[in-house]
Amino acid sequence: MNTPAPSSRRAALILLLILALPPLFWAGNFIVARAVHAQIPPVTLSLGRWLIALLCILPFAFSALRRDYRQYWQYRWRLLAVSTVGVAAFNTLVYTGLHDTTATNGTLLNSCIPIFILLFGALFYKLPLQARQVLGLALSLCGVLTIIFQGEWSHLLKLKFSHGDLIILLAMVCWAFYTLWLRELPPQLSRIGLMAVQIMIAILLLLPLYFWERAVGPAPQWNTETAWALAYVGIFPSVIAYTLYITGVARAGAAKAGLFIHLMPVFGTLLAMAFLAESFQLYHLLGIAAILCGLTISTRPSTA
Fold it and tell me: 20 to 30 A from 125, CA-CA: which of 35, 36, 174, 291?
């Protein structure tokens, strides 16, 4: 049996980090957004997030934007589509839904993303559905549900869903199509330039909604807490996580990248322990073990 070369092991480790870091930062995004949902309206939070992200990313993306602008125009309709569903709509829908649903329900619905990616990919794009992907998906989903239901599956019967849950479910559908549509953009395009273009399009789409929200809704409450919250969502789950995610989709494929979203409950549990002083229970250990086993099965290279 051939032993993997050090260079291939290093490349595999880098790819693992590329795929694993976005769920970490997005888990923090859910926690922060829920914490300030009564102080910052959803469209304001989404627009502020992307304005900060654009300021951070533009100096690094400027040369790529100048080099690739003809290709951006060539793929203008695909760029409009991914920017609409994955940047403008997804985050605004999540922030809106978090006003009217619990963190448990939001986490549960977020775990539908890998299922939607595999299902839509097979139905609409004829993507092959391998048995080990299905097995790994099922195992990691069981791990997610074990954490959400605290090891008591009878809790499933006690869940109540609201219109906020339906809004978040729609956001998950948007993210599934975002992941699948990213595959149709050429991999030679700079990932950071591609992210900058998506952000600029999303800001243009969000501006009319922002003015409407200011006219009919409550004004945001700015203080130290909300300023730090906006800074976090503008940098970590936006610039860093999105750039890594579209890089991961280009390198590993939509199905594999989507499966790593099941790490969000794992990171959410660890963040809650670190910042909310929550205790670590046996069901956490069992759920995390099932998620990691499922990811290992789904992402290991085929021996055929």
Answer: 291
Please tell me the number of Cα atoms within 13 Å of 120 on its side-chain side. Answer: 19
Per run of 10 residues, the mean pLDDT along the chain (length 304 residues) is 66 88 88 86 94 94 91 94 95 87 64 79 80 77 71 66 77 91 86 92 96 90 93 92 89 80 77 67 75 70 51
The predicted pLDDT at position 82 comes to 95
Short-list 116, 264, 244, 121, CA closest to 191: 244
> What is the rounded end-to-end Cα distance, in angstroms, of the chain?
14
**290 C-beta neighbours (distance < 10 Å), count:** 21
Alpha helical stretches, state H, the chain: 6-35, 42-74, 76-82, 90-97, 103-110, 113-124, 131-148, 163-182, 191-216, 224-234, 241-252, 254-259, 264-276, 282-299
Phi, psi for residue 138 in degrees, rounded to 5: -65, -40
The two tokens of residue 293 are 């086993």
| Token reading at 205 | 């789409």
Question: Who's near 171: CB < 8 A, 6+ residues apart?
Answer: 89, 90, 91, 93, 94, 97
**Count of positions (residues) in the chain:** 304
For residues 128 and 278, the answer to whether their CB atoms sit within 8 Å is: no
Tell me phi and psi for residue 199, to 5 degrees: -65, -45
Could you tell me the maximum CA-CA distance found in the chain, to the nearest angstrom? Answer: 67
